[in-house]
Amino acid sequence: MPTLFRMGSPIRVLHWYWQSAGGGIDRVVRTLARRQADNPGLDIRLATGRAWDAARDPKLPPASGMGFRHGLDFLRLGRVRAALRDIDLLHMHSFNPVVALAARQTRTRVIYTDHGSDRSKSPRNLIMQWLLQRRFVGRVAALVTSPSRFAAAGQEEFYARKIRAVENGLEASSIRARRSSQKTRAEFGLSPRDFVIGTAAVFQERKRLPLLLKVFAEFERLNPHARARLLIAGDGWGADALRDGAAGLGIADRTVFCGFRRDVHDVIAAMDTFVLPTKGEPFGLAAVEAMLLQRPVIVFKSGGGLVEVVRDGETGYIVPTASKAVRALEDIYRHPRGARELGRRARAIALRRFGMERMERSIYACYQEAVHAP
Q1: Which residues, other chains included, contact 121 with Cβ-Cβ below 8 Å and sequence gap of 6+?
Q2: Same structural domain for residues 161 and 179?
């Protein structure tokens, strides 16, 4: 039997997503859950498909890993059903057919947040997303949210229903460098005099990191005395290809691949400017983090939600082409005082727009709407 919401009692919410591995969804959900724990109108719990890394964040509400061996591990169905037994609302941040079936069987109300999905029509996606996810989210979820207007527009077409845009938030107090940029640069063999262009991203095709390599190479060709260096934080399947690309462009000895970093805020703070060449980004959490660290951000007009995050000429640059990206880098390099002012404005605007308090209020309103809906 479904659990009945008790009027006057806290809304019992279970956040679900695939793994607590430090990625964008993980960071957003953890930060949101910590803020929600202070709301007397909510009783928050978390669950992931993979094992839960409890040591990383002991201050979170109760959390557990379901021990999925793979995405179609229906042997975990009973465990998920048990986790939903006394839950009023399941907040799904990624789709899984086992969790979807458990929600249907227990008649648990669902809010689904689509943080950005791969819509390619591979054989796996045709089944998992175009058939199962599209049907479940489009017909079963009480309410669907998205992190940007750009993402919501595409999702409305995909799910054939209204999507509510709720921008991601961050706890600004946690977005800070814990050591000096000089010490971080020294770790990577970079000098305080170097002009450091950088990014932080998962190495995926849509991140277009090969484009960043080309932009850097062209900037260096036009500005040979700039002592330019490229600093890339992140990892993924394309790491070897990126290193080969840097070698092919003749910039390997001026490019630092520092891998996945838990101290990524220290790494970003060591950059002079932050560049995200992503195409069709649903939101752009890394861009907001760079803004909070007072770094001017360069994104492309094809960046999707990134265009909603960055204000051209006010917090950074929105450019149409690689050549314009080079021009933006030249502006930042040649006018360091102006670049610092961009960074200051970027932080001030990010504090107003992307605070976790604002996101928590919006999500809480969604929860109240979902549990009181007929």
Answers
A1: 130
A2: no
